[in-house]
Specification:
By secondary structure, the protein is α+β, with helices and mostly antiparallel strands. It contains two helices and eight strands, in the order ααββββββββ. A hairpin with a 4-residue loop joins β2 and β3. α1 packs antiparallel against α2.
């Protein structure tokens, strides 16, 4: 995969965060009582960011085709990524059909502006499928984990507001800068 496609992947994730950053301002809830919908929106954005981090650290800029790599997670744990990747060089579109087998993979995402920041810390164990295509201006991806264990901590300006430690199904769809689906039977859309 070219340096251009690595840039495209990073730009897409950045666009997603800028689109989502207005969700994570202090008017949506105080540091001690983020509401249910808002909390699960944070998890969805953090989860997609974590998958993108694993992809970027291990596959972006690497040769396409069959993949089978075991590596450290972004902030710890291990991940084995298997499946296939391809690139349409004419349109600069990357297509993935991947499986991430995670063991205590940890990621952190920060949303908002200085003085008004939400931090989502995730630890995931289990298997996630990642299918779809993306480019600099386009994304259509699905993320599916049937029995995924997540430990989540949400903090506002460094003060923990809510935690979660649960195992269950996560099904998310990202189209461009929107994410929708379910996390442990809770519907999310952002």
């Amino acid at each position: 995969m070219s340096t251009f496609l690595r840039f495209v992947t990073i730009a897409l994730i950045s666009a997603l965060f800028f689109q989502c950053s207005d969700l994570f301002d202090d008017s949506k809830g105080s540091g001690s009582d983020a509401d249910e919908t808002y909390f699960y929106q944070q998890i969805a954005a953090g989860f997609v960011s974590c998958i993108a981090s694993m992809y970027n650290q291990n596959l972006a800029g690497k040769p396409t085709g069959n993949q089978n790599i075991t590596a450290d997670g972004p902030l710890g744990g291990t991940v084995t990524i298997t499946g296939t990747t391809s690139v349409d060089n004419t349109h600069n579109i990357t297509t993935v059909d991947l499986v991430y087998d995670t063991d205590a993979v940890r990621c952190t995402s920060v949303f908002g502006d200085p003085g008004s920041q939400w931090t989502i810390s995730l630890e995931m164990s289990g298997t996630v499928t990642h299918k779809g295509s993306f480019s600099y201006t386009y994304a259509d991806e699905t993320f599916n984990g049937e029995t995924l264990h997540l430990k989540v901590s949400s903090a506002y300006n460094g003060k923990t507001s809510r935690t979660l430690d649960e195992t269950g199904a996560i099904v998310l769809h990202r189209q461009d800068d929107h994410i929708s689906g379910t996390i442990f039977s809770v519907s999310v859309a952002l």
